[in-house]
Write a structure and sequence with these properties.
4% strand, EC 2.3.3.16, mainly alpha, citrate synthase (unknown stereospecificity), Citrate_synth-like_lrg_a-sub, Citrate_synthase, citrate synthase activity, Multidrug-efflux Transporter Regulator, Chain: A, Domain 2, three-stranded antiparallel beta sheet
Length: 416
C-alpha cells in the first residue's frame, strides 16, 4: 500500500487517482456507503472525501489480495486499528475535536483544551478547587523529593487512587472531575508544591522559574503563553505508544489513575517521552560557534549516534507542533543571546541532516528559553499527555469494548 498522503481530506480526482478508478466509481462508492462525501466549501460545489475512508478501502482491497499482510503492519504506523473522535492528524496541523490545535496554542488555556478533549464543557471540571494533599501523601513526598519528576508521579498516582473512594465511579461527571484532579495532582508533584489556586501553567512556572536568572521577557504573560502552548501542543497525538497503552488499560475498566500510571510507564521509554530530555541535553551542547557546533554534530553522526528531536514519520513537511513552538520562542525572545544560540543550533541541525524539528525539539527549545530546571521538559510532556490519555480512556469506557488483538504464531509447531 503506497498511499501516504497526510491531508485529512481529498478531492474526487485525488481519490480516483489513489484508488485507480474512474470518477464515476467514486460516486458509486458514496452511494453504497463505502465513502462519505461532504461539501468542500468551494464555489463549484465540489465534494471532498475523508482520507481515512479512502485508506480503509485500500486496506480492504489489500486484505483480500494478501490476507494477513495488513494486520502485520497495523500496529506500527500502519492503518488505523480503532475508531476515535479525539485527534485528527493533518499534513501541516492537527485538530482536537475538530479545532485547530495550533490556533488553540495561541488563544486557549491548557485547562480549556483538556475540557475540549474530554467533551466536558457542560461540566466545567476545572472550576472546582485544587485538591489538597493528605498528611500521608505529604510524608511520601518528603521521602521522594529528590527523585525525578516521572518517578514522583509514578510512585504517588497509585496512592491517590487508594485515597479516592470514587476512583471506580463510572458516571461521566465523576470521570471528568477526577481527570481534572489528576492533572492538578501531577502539577503539584512536578512543581514541588503542596497547594495551588492558579492555573496549571502558573503553578508550574512559579515554581520552576529562577528569579535571579530569569528576567526576560519582562512580560510574564509571554512566558505563560509559551508554557500554555507547550502543554496544549503536547496534549494528544492520536494513538502513540502511551495513548494506545492507556486505551488498552482503560478497556479492562481499570481506574483513571491506573490509566495514567500506564501512560507514564510508556512515556518513560527512550523512544517516547525521554526523547524530550535527550533533545534538551543536545541543546545544552550548543556553543554559539557555528563552526565548532558543526564539527560536534558531524562527529556524532560519524559515530553512528542519533540526533534526537528531528524527523517525524507522520509528517513529510515537518512536525507542526515543533514548528509552532519554535516560532513562539522566536516571537517572545527576540533579543536573548542564549535563545539565539539555541535557535541557530536547531537550524544548523535541520540543515545538516536535512530533516525537520519535532515537538521534542520544540519542547527542548521552550524549556531553554524559559530557563526551566532539569526534568521540567519531561514534566511538561507528562502532564500535557495525561490530558490525552484521560480523553482516550473516557472514549474507551464509552465503547464498552475490550482491546484484545490476536497474534500470528510463527514459532515451532507441536510435534506429533
Amino acid at each position: 500500500m503506497s498511499f501516504s498522503l497526510k491531508k485529512p481530506f481529498l478531492s474526487a480526482e485525488e481519490v480516483a487517482s489513489v484508488l485507480g478508478v474512474e470518477i464515476q466509481t467514486i460516486y458509486a462508492y458514496v452511494s453504497r456507503g463505502l465513502l462519505h462525501s461532504e461539501s468542500g466549501g468551494n464555489k463549484d460545489r465540489s465534494k471532498r472525501y475523508r482520507r481515512e475512508d479512502v485508506e480503509q478501502l485500500l486496506l480492504r482491497r489489500e486484505e483480500r489480495s494478501q490476507p494477513g499482510k495488513t494486520a502485520k503492519t497495523a500496529l506500527s504506523l500502519g492503518q488505523p486499528v480503532l475508531e476515535s473522535s479525539i485527534t485528527l492528524l493533518g499534513e501541516e496541523t492537527l485538530f482536537y475535536r475538530g479545532k485547530d490545535a495550533l490556533q488553540l496554542s495561541e488563544t486557549s488555556s491548557f485547562e480549556e483544551t483538556a475540557t475540549l478533549l474530554w467533551e466536558a464543557e457542560d461540566i466545567s471540571p476545572f472550576q472546582q478547587e485544587w485538591p489538597s494533599l493528605s498528611p500521608e501523601c505529604l510524608k511520601i513526598i518528603n521521602l521522594i523529593s529528590d527523585r525525578p519528576i516521572l518517578d514522583r508521579c509514578r510512585i504517588l498516582i497509585p496512592f491517590l487512587e487508594y485515597e479516592d473512594p470514587k476512583a471506580f465511579r463510572k458516571d461521566s461527571k465523576t470521570f471528568r472531575k477526577t481527570g481534572s484532579s489528576i492533572l492538578r495532582y501531577l502539577s503539584l508533584f512536578a512543581s514541588d508544591k503542596t497547594y495551588s489556586s492558579g492555573s496549571i501553567s502558573e503553578t508550574l512556572l512559579s515554581s520552576w522559574s529562577d528569579s535571579k536568572r530569569s528576567k526576560e521577557p519582562k512580560d510574564l504573560s509571554s512566558r505563560i503563553r509559551l508554557l500554555e502552548a507547550a502543554l496544549i501542543l503536547s496534549a494528544d497525538h492520536e494513538l502513540n505508544v502511551s495513548s494506545f497503552t492507556a486505551r488498552c488499560v482503560a478497556s479492562s475498566e481499570a481506574s483513571l489513575y491506573q490509566v495514567v500510571l500506564a501512560g507514564l510507564a510508556a512515556l518513560s521509554g527512550p523512544k517516547h517521552g525521554l526523547l524530550t530530555e535527550k533533545a534538551i541535553q543536545l541543546l545544552s551542547q550548543a556553543s554559539g560557534s557555528a563552526k565548532k557546533d558543526r564539527l560536534f554534530l558531524e562527529e556524532k553522526l560519524r559515530n553512528g549516534e542519533s540526533i534526537p528531536g528531528f524527523g517525524h514519520p507522520l509528517y513529510k513537511k515537518g512536525d507542526p507542533r515543533g514548528k509552532k513552538l519554535i516560532d513562539l520562542v522566536k516571537r517572545f525572545f527576540p533579543d536573548r543571546e542564549d535563545v539565539q544560540i539555541h535557535l541557530q543550533f536547531v537550524q544548523q541541525i535541520s540543515e545538516l541532516i536535512d530533516d525537520y524539528p519535532t515537538v521534542d525539539a520544540g519542547l527542548a527549545l521552550a524549556s531553554k528559553a524559559l530557563q526551566l530546571p532539569k526534568g521540567a521538559g519531561i514534566g511538561i510532556f507528562a502532564i500535557a499527555r495525561s490530558a490525552g490519555w484521560l480523553a482516550h480512556a473516557m472514549e474507551q469506557y464509552d465503547s464498552g469494548s475490550l482491546i484484545r488483538p490476536r497474534a500470528k504464531y510463527i514459532g515451532k509447531m507441536p510435534q506429533d
